[in-house]
TrEMBL record:
Superkingdom of this protein's organism: Bacteria
Entry-linked Pfam families: TM1586_NiRdase
SUPFAM superfamilies: FMN-dependent nitroreductase-like
Keyword flag Oxidoreductase: yes
Protein's UniProt name: Putative nitroreductase TM1586 domain-containing protein
PANTHER family reported in the protein's UniProt record: NAD(P)H NITROREDUCTASE YDGI-RELATED, NADH DEHYDROGENASE_NAD(P)H NITROREDUCTASE XCC3605-RELATED
């Protein structure tokens, strides 16, 4: 699958099949993150891979939505830099696209109780949880939500 096809096919998936992700595919996803660019190549990020069903349920309960624990893998994306660290979001974006190429779905999650997640996963005080990414085989096939036209999103030479 070429990159543009993965970009077009990617949807936020909020229902997952009860099907595990193989270690081989998981390593591929994590490698996509490893290869992402970061400012000055500092790589100020860390992903926590959560597969344990009990922990997934606890994480689910620390989120505003109830589908997150159904995903066989939840990535918890952390930054040692800032709460909305750009570096970490690029890492996660790389992973979402490779996930599509592997037939997987995912969903960015920003609505969660950060203190609760930090407590559950022993995340140190100075580390920020930037987002969560549940990943699994999609059990839904949502339409693409409408995008603004390029004419509204892009200007040339000046704002
Ligand atoms: C930074 C960011 C935060 C998001 N947070 C949530 C969230 O907390 N819960 C959720 O269900 N979707 C969340 N989303 C998914 C968006 O709702 C979704 O990307 C948007 O509606 C467009 O749909 P699409 O991803 O299928 O193209 C988030 C997306 C981004 C990029």
């Amino acid at each position: 699958m070429d990159v543009m096809e993965a970009i077009r096919k990617r949807r936020s998936i909020r229902a997952y099949k009860n099907e595990p992700i193989s270690d081989e595919i998981l390593q591929k996803l994590l490698t996509a993150g490893q290869l992402a660019p970061t400012g000055n190549n500092k790589q100020p990020w860390k992903l926590i891979v959560v597969r344990d069903p009990e922990m997934r349920k606890k994480i689910n309960d620390a989120c505003a939505q109830d589908f997150i624990g159904d995903a066989p893998v939840i990535l918890v994306a952390c930054s040692s830099k800032e709460p909305k660290d750009m570096n970490t979001t690029i890492v996660v974006d790389h992973i979402t696209l490779v996930a599509v190429a592997e037939g997987l779905g995912s969903c960015w999650i920003r609505s969660f109780d950060e203190a609760k997640i930090k407590e559950l996963l022993d995340i140190p005080e100075e580390i920020h949880v930037v987002c969560l990414l549940p990943i699994g085989y999609p059990a839904e096939n949502p339409e693409m939500p409408e995008r603004k036209p390029l004419s509204e999103l892009v200007s040339y030479e000046k704002y």
